[in-house]
Amino acid sequence: MTAPHSLRVEHLPDPLGITVRQPRLSWQLPAGSRRQVAYRIRADGWDSGRVESDQSVLVRYGGPPARSGRRVEWQVQVWTDAGRSDWSAPGWWEAGLLEAGDWTARFIEPDEAEDVRDRTPRPAYLFRHSFTLAGEVKKARLYATAHGVYECHINGRRVGDMELTPGFTSYGSILQVQAFDVTGLLEPGENVVGAIVSDGWFRGQVSGFRLTNLYGDSVALLAQLDVTQDNGSVTSIGTGPDWEVGTGAITEADLYQGQRIDLRHARPGWSAPSGAFTGAIGPGATDTDAAGAGGTDTDGTATGGGDHGWAGVRVRDHDLSRLTSSPAPPVRRVEELRPIAVTQPRPDRQVIDLGRNINGWIRLESLGPAGTELTLTHGEALDPDGDVTQANLVPDPEANQDLQDPEFANLALPLQVDSVVSSGRPGEFFEPRHTTHGFRYVRVEGHPGTIEPDQATGVVVHTALRPTGSFTCSDERINALHDAAMWSFRGNACDIPTDCPTRERAGWTGDWQIFAPTAAFLYDVAGFSTKWLRDLAAEQQSDGLVLHCVPETMSMRALKKIGAPPGSSGWGDAAVIVPWETYRAYADVDVLAEQWPSMTAWVEYAARAAREHRHPDRVAARPEPAVHEEFLWDSGYHWGEWLEPDVWEPNIISTLAVADHGAVATAYLHYSASLLARIAGILGRDDDAVRYRNLAAATRAAWQTEFIRGDGTLAPDTQATYVRALAFGLVPDESRPQMAQRLVELIRKAGTHLGTGFLATPYLLPVLADAGHLDIAYEVLFQDTPPSWLTMVDRGATTIWEDWNGVSENGIPYLSLNHYSKGAVVSFLHRYTGGIQLLDDHPGYRHFRIAPRPGGGITSACVTHQSPYGSIKVSWRLDGERFQMEVSVPPGATADVRLPTGSDLQAAPGTSYYECRHEAGA
Ligand code: BGC
Description:
The protein is of the alpha+beta class. The chain contains 18 helices and 46 strands. Among the domains are: 91 residues, Immunoglobulin-like (Sandwich), CATH 2.60.40.10; 368 residues, Sandwich (Jelly Rolls), CATH 2.60.120; 74 residues, Maltose phosphorylase, domain 3 (Sandwich). The strands form ten sheets. Strands 22, 23, 26, 27, 28, 29, 32, 33, 34 and 35 form a ten-stranded mixed beta sheet that branches. Strands 2, 4, 5, 6, 8, 9 and 10 form a seven-stranded mixed beta sheet that branches. The longest helix is centred in the middle third of the chain and has 24 residues. About 3% of the residues have low confidence. Bound molecules: beta-D-glucopyranose (BGC). The site of beta-D-glucopyranose has 10 residues, from helix 4. It is an enzyme of class 3 (hydrolase). This is alpha-L-rhamnosidase.
């Protein structure tokens, strides 16, 4: 390859309709080159000329500013050590509607009866509009968004393959617009454009409380079709008063509760011009409103649906200044799985087993004769009789008094239950697209026959993130653990990073803070995190407080009721840690600059809380505050280490509400302040760098004064405290060996078991390895009695459990079986076992370390990462004492190589081979 390749705009491969005015461009250097010395970009008449620079990642476009709808083609040429390259193949981006004034469309809403508006779940609405085009179409773009989730149809065909658009954002401040190239869908003459809109996150059930109407009480659609015709004329067809609305086959749609489709009420041809619908279109492109219930048209007499059952719409002028493109890829149907079994635990029910726990839905063929009603209940586990159980997902009202409150009444509603009534049309099938489920098993009730495995498909649905990392080694159980962590992330990446895809589906800040670095190795999450961080900032309170979940799913009122107000350390710190980790992985400085006000507001909030409040126990023990307490954050509600082994109890919140979390909160205040000091340095904010360096030093000193006891142990004397102390640099350098020794003692005391919860688990093995206890790290990794990761694997987990006791010895499930946080352990496999280490001072793996640390009897490992510069690979094999390794470094990057013997070498771009003697335990 003699030209730069892998062109990207911002972090997107196909940037259609972006609202970034001066996007950043990236490319990878031609194979065989080592170092870029200059580049030249040309883009639609603009020419950067030769620019002396080694930058090839996120280079800002400096040409004429974007105009709405304008498509820019660009190419890049580079000068490297190998000389001048050819011009790259062209890349492109196309601007969306940049100004509110570009919208001729107006929001439209159904005029909904009050009794429908007040209940949950509600039906999906069909909006449609017919129009005439005089001549051939040269170019057509559809821009659309909704309050709710929408899918557009034109002339009987589904538009695009994005699901659950416009995605989940802080709708009050940010509403994403999707752009679609619909040139091929329009014809001269009559055309119909339509959309199916359901409640989605906007007003459907959200959070563990299943609250509704969090962002508004009506669904709405905004869509604009901009058509350029052959004669150059431009027509804009937008939602407005002349559209019509109706309901059809989707009689209920809720992301939590499920979807109900009555195929007898389907409206084939609803989005087709009169008489034009031909039927038989196939999955994903059907023209019934039943979201996949197409196949063939009833009797070939589609009427275009325009003659009955359609009503006028209400036009609303909702805020257009919120409209923006997404920095992240859309949600798609990413993969399909064939069931591994269909069983019949009782005569009236069949259970489909997908073989793994996913987020998504089921596509089912064979729906039985007309009028047959099937009920599909989705769960993560089976009960002792082999039937689907949801016992681990639905709260036990007996055990949790708070849930008696009428505000939480929806908790009694079914969870993840779809139903479908057959119309008996041949070729008909069921596929809901206005709900998702976290499940491995589906119970089907009401089926008159036997469901064959090839009649059911598990559809995996999540953000279509680019895979960037892989790991395999000689130990199959470790590979299974890696797989489970990967699938847990996939199950929790449905437009926002969630805790679980079942019970809460919420963007818990702590969970993403914990897992984001691991995710960034496995997938390109740059845009995904950037999108979420904008919501975090949008919902941050004026005093800097960060909500528990982003976007908001819980309501302050509900949280106060249960006694868990937001502002928790380790969770709110996502405001600092996630931008930092995004910068590290992708060399994206803009994310730091953009989030700077948010991250500093959070740290100032925490610093103020430390200064102004004291924990009642400390007041009682020491009426006059000690000097260091100014920097001790011991007030407020915190989740603490959260879910250490055997600490969960149903009323844990009331215990946490009165507990002293000073050791955790002050540790995070120190860590976030020290990150801010570094970030300030990167952004050239020298005064801020000094301020946060001082704050970091003062909080560290306060932590030491308060939590290092006279005998040199820490308070509380738990594994998590030592792990955090070592990971965050909280203890004096000279006492690190002693702290690590105590951590080892605690692990040994627990029978070589881990004792960490959410926050410290990702650091446990790295801290041990760094402190000279690699052997213990591997012993803990390979531990297979509970609590341990391999217990999960041995008990059949295909995703990571929320609690260390996720499935009991006798197979009883407990809490969610799909929470990625504890899966962050696989970062140890990437960085230590495999040995690819990202260095703080060289973001984007421009210069990185290769330092595999074999152990645990693993005899070979292979780890790869697609960095912004290109492909990194480390593959090693241990043959007795002979250690052999192959490494690849992409052009434009360099690496330090540390062999297990300790010798340090340098690796240049290309593939290199190493060999040395390795003694076990080294
Ligand atoms: C969620 C978590 C979350 C936690 C707060 C749980 O209910 O599922 O993952 O971080 O609450 O501690």
